Backbone:
């Protein structure tokens, strides 16, 4: 019988947006990180409308910043509850100039950039709410990630 190697996790990546499912994903990522004595990196993936507004110079900077701060404050609170270290970043989930930039590719690119060992991706219903950026990303990440993935 082959010997099983234990899973080694130093960094759990969790992409987040304005959805309730993202909060659940952060909680799962923090629980996994706590179990493996690892840390969590939350990447806030900006919605297409926000990216277009930023690229066109028509953005309400205060609103985008407030939305991002609220999301990251939730992540910080959850990480603190699990006593795990949290780092954060923000990424454009879409681009008007790069055809292949979408939430799924952003998650995988970020995983490589931060050297994530494990991914927790929210699997969201397609409700059409503008803040739900990651609705279609989970399937893409599950198909193409080289790391273990938990879709919640």
Residues:
């Amino acid at each position: 019988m082959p010997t099983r190697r234990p899973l080694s996790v130093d960094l759990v990546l969790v992409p987040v947006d304005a959805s309730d499912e993202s909060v659940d994903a952060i909680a799962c990522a923090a629980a996994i990180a706590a179990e493996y004595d690892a840390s969590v990196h939350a990447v806030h993936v900006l919605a297409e409308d926000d990216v277009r507004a930023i690229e066109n110079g028509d953005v309400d900077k205060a609103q985008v910043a407030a939305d991002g701060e609220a999301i990251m404050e939730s992540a910080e609170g959850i990480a603190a509850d699990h006593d795990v270290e949290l780092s954060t970043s923000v990424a454009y989930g879409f681009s008007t100039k790069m055809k292949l930039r979408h939430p799924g590719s952003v998650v995988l690119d970020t995983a490589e950039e931060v050297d994530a060992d494990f991914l927790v991706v929210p699997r969201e219903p397609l409700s059409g709410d503008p803040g739900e950026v990651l609705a279609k990303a989970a399937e893409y990440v599950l198909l193409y990630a080289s790391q273990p993935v938990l879709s919640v």
